[in-house]
Every structure is written in C-alpha cells, then in structure tokens.
User: Which sequence fits this backbone?
C-alpha cells in the first residue's frame, strides 16, 4: 500500500535538506514509492543515490537567489506535487547550544533564525506558486 494514495498521478517531489537525516530518510522511502516519478533533492552538501528517480542540486537557505534557482530547476520539466522541507539547525561545527545566558551570541542566534525560520518562508515564496492549483487554493481559503 502506497503512502501517497491520495495523489492521482505520478508525483514530482522536492526535498529540501536532502543531506540531513530526515531528508535522506524521505528520499529512501520515496524512491520505493510507485506513485513517485521524480525526486528533486536539494542540499548544501553532496548526496549520492543509486536511484535514477532522484536528482541532486545545491541550495543555500541563507541565499534567496539559490532558493529561487532551485524552484526554477524543480519546475522546469514538470509540475511540482509535493515539497518537503527537512531543514533545520540546532548545532554544527561552528554552533553549539548555549548552556547559559552568558553564552548567548547574537550572530549565532541570527544564523539559527535565518536557517530555521526565514529560509523556509523564502522556500514558500518561490515554491508555492509552482503548485498547479495554488491560485484556486488561495481563493478558497480567502473566501
């Protein structure tokens, strides 16, 4: 039984954050789904896949032009049916969780905010208009 039975056609799926644990897990599951035709996987880091369903490209959530290019690339050959944003940051090599208020660093806080909040909002800005029925959806919600 497919997890995507509510969709009626072969799906074109976008996964943003493909190199992280969640992104990789989504790719692994979706590559096995018969309802999925194409997976456009975006991340800052290279990811390899044995499946010919999946194509990988670069994206940087702190760069709006990068997000716009990703949306154009993903929608250039087919409609987009589903976008999964599997991004987020709590810590990295340069960022560690604060253990007290004395350790708060405004530049680190801004980077975390940019990646976890502004990045997904900019993804919505460029990817939502690529959905085939988004205008009708907005009209229905607004009435």
Assistant:
């Amino acid at each position: 039984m497919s997890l995507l039975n509510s969709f009626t056609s072969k799906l074109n799926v976008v996964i943003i954050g493909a190199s992280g644990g969640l992104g990789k897990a989504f790719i692994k599951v979706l590559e096995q789904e018969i309802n999925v035709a194409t997976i456009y996987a975006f991340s800052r880091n290279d990811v390899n896949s044995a499946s010919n369903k999946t194509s990988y490209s670069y994206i940087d959530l702190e760069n709006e032009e990068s997000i716009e290019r990703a949306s154009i690339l993903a929608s250039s050959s087919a409609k987009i049916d589903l976008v999964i944003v599997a991004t987020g940051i709590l810590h990295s090599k340069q960022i560690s969780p604060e253990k007290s208020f004395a350790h708060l660093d405004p530049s680190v806080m801004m980077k975390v905010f940019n990646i976890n909040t502004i990045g997904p909002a900019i993804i919505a800005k460029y990817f939502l208009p690529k959905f085939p029925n988004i205008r009708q959806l907005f009209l229905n919600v607004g009435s």
Summary: The beta strands are 11-16, 36-43, 54-58, 82-85. The domain at 11-142 is CATH 3.40.50.720 (Rossmann fold). The first helix runs from residue 21 to 32.
